[in-house]
Amino acid sequence: MTETAIYVEGLAKRFGEVVALDGIDFAVPAGTVFGLLGPNGAGKTTAVRVLATVIPPDRGRAEVLGHDVRRAAEAVRYRIGLAGQNAAVDPNLTGRENLRLIGRLTQLPSRTIEVRATEILGRFGLADAADRPVRTYSGGMRRRLDVGAALVHRPPVLFLDEPTTGLDPEGRNELWSVIRELVADGTTVLLTTQYLEEADRLADRIVVIDKGRVIADDTPAALKSRLGSTVTELGIGSEEEAARAASLVVGVPESRSESDGPILRITSQDAAKVLIEVLRTLDANGITPTTLSVRQPSLDDVFLALTGKHVEEEPPADRREMAKAGAR
Fold first, then answer.
1. What pLDDT sits at residue 2?
2. What pLDDT shows up at residue 314?
3. Strand 230-235 and strand 263-268: pairing?
4. Considering only Cβ atoms within 10 Å of each terminal Cβ, which end of the chain, N or C, has fewer?
5. Distance, CA of 65 to CA of 157 (rounded, Å)
6. Share of the chain above pLDDT 90, in %
7. What is the pTM of this model?
8. Contacts of 32 (CB under 8 A, 6+ apart)
C-alpha cells in the first residue's frame, strides 16, 4: 500500500470577506509529483502556505507525513522544504553562505552543512558562482539557489510554489530535471504552476481548484481524455463571428464547442465526421473559416473547459488579501 505523504480534508481559509479555500480535499502519495493548478486567486498559494505551517487554516484537517499542521507544526517544518514564488535568498551573502545559513537554521551538524552546500551548488550548476554575492546572480541563478536552499536538510516533502516563473526555457528544463531526480530518490513534490505544460510533463496527479474549491482531481491523461481524442481549431476572423459560430454548432452530436477570441475550438472523439458537419453548418450560415488546425487535447483545453477561462485570467485576490492580513 502506497504511503500518503500529504492529506487534506475540508480545508478552509478566508481573508476578510475573501474566501481563499472553501473546504478542499486531496491526498498526495509519497514519492510522486502532485500538481495544484488554478487561475490566479484560486487558492493555490494559500493551500501551500497552510501546509507549510506559514498560516493556520480556519477549519478542516491537513497532515504532512502523518503530522497535523496545527497541532504538530514544528514536526511538519522539520520534514518539509519550501520554495515560494519569490527567491528568499539574501542578496548580500554568497551562494555558499546562503546555504550554510539554511543549514544552521535547520540544525544540521557543521560538517554536514559544508558537504550539503557543495553538493547543492554542483547539482544546480552554481559551483562557479558559489563565492559570489547573490546580488550578482541572474534571475534564473537566484531561483535555482532558492530551490536548492529548500533541499539543504534533505526534506522528504518539498513544496514548490510556481518554481519556474521567470526562468528561460533552458533554466526551466534544468529545474524539471532536478525535480524528476528528487522524485526518483523518493521525495514527494507538491507543485503549483501557471505553466500547464509543466504540470503535464511532471505531475503524476493533478488537482484543479477554482474559487477555493476542487473542481477536478485525476491524472493528466485522464483529464485530457474527458474532452475527446481530438481538438479542431478554426480561425473565424473576429471574436464576434467566432462566438456566433460556436452558438450555431452547439448542437452537433458527440462534440463540444467554444469560442476563444477569434478561434472556434471543437473537441470530439470522431474529428472527421464532426468537422464535416461543422463546416456544413457554418457554410449554410455564411461563415468561412480562415485557418484550420487539428491536435490532441492539452491541459489548457481541460482548464478552459472546467473553469471557462485560461489559467492566468483571474485577478490574484487571495494574494492581495493575504498581504492585507499580514500573511506574507
1. 61
2. 44
3. antiparallel
4. N
5. 8
6. 61
7. 0.78
8. 5, 183, 188, 189, 204, 205
d(CA 172, CA 280): 44
Task: Name the one residue in this structure whose C-alpha cell is 481559509.
Answer: 13
User: For the purposes of burial, counting CB atoms within 10 Å of the CB of 109, is it exposed (0-12), middle (13-18) or buried (19 or more)?
Assistant: exposed
| Cβ partners under 8 Å of residue 185, min gap 6 | none
* pLDDT tens digits for range 51-66: 999 999 999 999 999 9
Using DSSP's 3-state secondary structure scheme, residue 144 falls into: helix
Burial zone of 183 (CB within 10 Å; 0-12 exposed, 13-18 middle, 19+ buried) = middle
User: With 0-12 CB in 10 A as exposed, 13-18 as middle and 19+ as buried, what is 35?
Assistant: buried
Nearest-5° Cα angle at 161, 159 to 164: 115
Answer for the pair 76, 143: CB distance below 8 angstroms, yes or no: no
Closest listed residue to residue 146, CA positions, set 197, 227, 86:
86
Asked if 144 and 125 count as a contact pair (C-beta separation under 8 A), the reply is: yes
DSSP classification of residue 16: T
Residue 63 burial (C-beta neighbours within 10 Å; 0-12, 13-18, 19+) = buried
What does the pLDDT look like over 165-217, one tens digit per residue? 777 788 788 888 888 999 999 999 999 987 778 888 899 999 999 889 999 99
Alpha helices in the chain (DSSP H): 44-51, 73-78, 95-105, 110-123, 139-149, 169-184, 196-202, 220-225, 239-248, 271-284, 299-307, 317-324
Asked if residues 189 and 51 have their Cβ atoms less than 8 Å apart, the reply is no
Distance CA 299, CA 305 (A): 10
Q: Are 297 and 224 in contact (CB under 8 A)?
A: yes
Which grid cell sits at 163? 518554481
Domains of the chain from N-terminus onward: 4-79+155-223 (3.40.50.300), 228-296 (3.30.70.270)
In 3-state terms the chain splits into helix, strand, coil percentages (rounded to 5) of 40, 25, 35
CA 223 to chain centre: 15
Helices 139-149, 110-123: axis angle to 10 degrees equals 140
